[in-house]
Amino acid sequence: MGHKTPIYELHLEQGAKIVDFGGWDMPIHYGSQVEEHHAVRNDAGVCDVSHMTIVDLTGADATVWLRRLISNDVAKLTTTGKALYSGMLNDQGGVLDDLIVYRTESGYRIVVNCATREKDLAWMNEQTEGFDAVLEERADLAILAVQGPAAIDKVTSLVGPGHGAVIAQLKPFVGLPSGNWFIARTGYTGEKGVEIMLPAEDARQLWQQLMSAGVQPVGLGARDTLRLEAGMNLYGSDMDESVTPYESNMAVTVVLEDHDFIGKAALQAQLAQGVSRQLVGLVMLERGVLRAHYPVFRNNVQVGEITSGAHSPTLGHSIALARIETGEGDLEVEIRNKRLPVKQVNPPFARNGKQVYKLD
Amino acid sequence: MAEFPGDLYFAESHEWARIEDDGTITVGISDHAQDSLGDVVFVELPEVDATVEAGGEAGVVESVKAASDIYAPVSGTITAVNTALEDAPETVNESPYDNGWFFKMKPDNLDDVKAMMNAEAYESFCENEDH
Asked: Which residue in B1, B39, B94 has the most chain A C-beta atoms within 10 A of its own C-beta, making it the best mutation to test that interface?
């Protein structure tokens, strides 16, 4: 038996199909992954993501330490609440994990992946030597991601005027405390919505209120197709320690100026040498489904492979992320010994319910 | 709970076969199979007039979860395919034993069909497989 979130029993009540996800018993779907996907694109859905790891950072050197730890620059977070997406790199520039950092009154709140929890915590603690930087894991908090065009209105109508007032003042990519909750306008779906970090008992109550209000429970299956349509990477599939941010469509998360960070020298060396591989979007208009590890060909030479692929419920055809050698020429993907043409596009594929990529 | 209609025959690879009045059989995948696969998003069907061997590949069903081969339950010749599934693959989930059929075929030997598992045997086969 794996770890269970505080909402586990309530998932079963909703008919959840449970799978192991990084050592956690998590809902993969509640009947139809595709319907859950559409609910988030068209209305509102809620996903229990309490398996993710929250770490609070305090101490006099918090900012100095974090500027060294990650490739993006938290000096950009000029006001309390602002959030930043970044990779955390090893000395070789390989991606140890991707994370979100929120600037808080007392320091920073960092959210990292569940499957990488132990590795991340060990690495982060190792790096605190010589710094006044204190890390505290917040395993006491659950996380509910409520996402979709109607998500913010529905949440606001349920949580009372106090939390409602906080939500009303949140700008996109900002998170603020609200009593013992922390509410952020962030997500992993490409839709409007909030992620709420809150005590276990409050999470159970909010979950039940959301169910009563007709908000669709969303499993990790739909969460995966939503993030893929939104062009967001999944750690462990689209990037890991063997690749750098430049090979992972994460160049915007690297700030080389003004701060030294772990992996910077390796990234500069890679830039000087030239980046030979890139993570690109693929669209297949033929019938069929692109899936992870299918080989990608250019001029009959394999140039890489798919890292994430799925049937896109919003677009009605298959989409994928693939890591390929840079170059020119039409691409093909091999599916069951058959080569099928695909188009290279810049992710995202869909956002706010609509297609956003362009074909020539 | 998955349904196991008594008038059907079942294969270990989770196809079902119904013997029709004209001596052909209709083939699809079981309720249990569609439930394990999750939402079906793509179906590849065999060619009409193709000859297939028992246990040989006769199509592909792709769900949100995985791609799975569809096998011919017995040897014979494909006589019809359900092209409606190309535009509405979700029919496999909604109606696995009726509108969600994959293909019809003329078996070389109808006794091969009758030698498949009956509903009761298949139900206990599924139960054992889940454990």
From this structure: B39
CB contact under 8 A, A287 and B86: yes
Task: Let me know whether A44 and A144 are in one domain.
Answer: yes
Domain that holds residue B59: 9-118
Range of the domain at A313: 276-355
pTM for the structure as a whole: 0.94
CA distance B33 to A238: 30
A-B contacts (CB, under 8 Å): 34
Chain B: give the shortest CA distance to residue A289, in Å: 7
- Tell me the pLDDT of chain A averaged across its residues: 97
Say yes or no: A22 and A154 in one domain. yes
The pLDDT score that the predictor gives to residue B131 is 64
Tell me whether residue A265 is in a domain: no
Q: How many domains does chain A have?
A: 2
pLDDT, tens digit (0-9, with 9 covering 90-100), for A42-88: 999 999 999 999 999 999 999 999 999 999 999 999 999 999 999 99
d(CA A242, CA A249): 14
Q: CA-based angle A157:A158:A160, to the nearest 5?
A: 85
Gap between the Cα atoms of A170 and A188, Å rounded: 17
**What token pair was written down for A295?**
């080989």
Three-state SS string across A23-77, please? Answer: CEEEEEECCCHHHHHHHHHHCCEEEECCCCEEEEEECCCHHHHHHHHECCCHHHC
